[in-house]
Amino acid sequence: MFKALILVDNDFINYSIDLTDAAQRLAGEEELQLYGLGINLENQQIKGFDTLICVEEPAIQAKDSRVITDIVQQVHQKYDFDSIFILATDFGRMVAPRLAMRLKAGLVADITAIEVDQQSRKLIRPAFSGNMLASIICDTKPIMASVHPNVFQAEEVTKQPEIVNFSVGQMKPSTIEVLTVTENEKQQDIREAEVLVSAGAGFNEDLDQLTDLAHKLKGTVSASKPVVEQNRAPREIQVGQSGKTVSPSLYLALGIYGSMQHIEGLKNVKDLISVNIDQGAPLNYLANIIVVGDAVEFVAKLKHRLNC
């Protein structure tokens, strides 16, 4: 029996459920017992687990990583899991290393694939700024991993879990105090978009020029890592291993070279159009359609053709 725990992120419940796919892959041919841990879920209906461990403590600050780490540690001490998966969100990145230190376990961050054979279990992640992939053999437990949202995708999640209420023991009081709250303008998450118009270093104009085109295609604008590093786009719209993993129906890549770091951010893209002056750009080898030419000129002509 292989016992896996997934920490449910209240802000990304569907992506948390997707981690059941990662747990299934890691279990290999062993029988899998899937546990979810939810904290202050407020009666939200969650499927896909064999057992859902619920902690209802109104005094717990939802984003207090130290208190959440205490809770996960207590749950692990009771159930003795073989693996623990945590979403690599901003919050998950605070919890995962703290928990690994508590449990004296290794942590493989930002995994993109899992390989299991009769000899070993391997977690795969990009290394050296995404220029190569590292296969890390895990032979101690618990095997801990953090995973970007949308990297793994669970199918047909219908299983109704057994609900187990868990009472936490003595915990240090939260030291987090909310001083102010600022509401940001709501923008479509690029992970949810069916169409992405994505700019790379080869698109050297203002990204605002892509807004009308994206709207015309009923999509949104995204960008590659170099564009974000040039302060031409916010990190929230970055595609890639250090950004977000996306699965659009159409991905229009404008001047994107296609490093491994960027390609790791593309999962199950149905149609990929690559526009680049470099015919040998790596992304071209993944594209359904290749346009060899200047991305800025291509955008101008396409907008004219679409009357936008």
TrEMBL record:
InterPro entries: DHS-like_NAD/FAD-binding_dom (IPR029035), ETF_a/b_N (IPR014730), ETF_a/FixB (IPR001308), ETF_asu_C (IPR014731), Rossmann-like_a/b/a_fold (IPR014729). Coiled coil: none annotated. Residues 4-183 form the Electron transfer flavoprotein alpha/beta-subunit N-terminal domain. It comes from the Bacteria. Belongs to the ETF alpha-subunit/FixB family. This is Electron transfer flavoprotein subunit alpha/FixB family protein. It comes from Candidatus Enterococcus moelleringii.
